[in-house]
Amino acid sequence: MFENLNWWEIGALLLLALLIFGERLPKVIGDGMRMLRGLRAMAQNATSDLNRELGTDLQLQDLHPKAFIRKHILSEEDEAALRKPLQGLLDDVKSDLNGVKNDLSEVAAAADIKKPATPSASSAVEKRASGFDLDAT
């Protein structure tokens, strides 16, 4: 939830909370922590009640639809059969991308031309390339 906040924003929020709540801030923080502990306890009780009623070892992460299907509906063989064609496709794409990367590296290495050691040599090359003397103009 707070992964997008930087230190300045957190400091500003704390200062704002201090201005709004003043001396009551420690009590408000304590009440908020008690509420969070209560919510966490309710969630744990709900999962333990579900485990007891269903007779399984159900975790909170298992309630996500993808995880539920993967764990309770698909067998390991079914999951492997679904992954096999996709894994082959992924391997093909990786090998193609590695080939392109190698080709680009070769082109970049070939494009690196050593610069002339002396400035007079570079000016001579510029004169020949442009067709007229740059110093004369």
TrEMBL record:
It is a single-pass membrane protein. The keyword Metal-binding does not apply. Its main location: membrane. Keywords: Membrane, Protein transport, Translocation, Transmembrane, Transmembrane helix, Transport. The keyword Transport applies. Gene3D superfamilies: 1.20.5.3310. It is found in: Membrane. Pfam families: TatA_B_E (PF02416). Residues 111-137 are annotated as: Disordered. InterPro entries: TatA/B/E. This is Sec-independent protein translocase protein TatB. It comes from Paractinoplanes durhamensis.
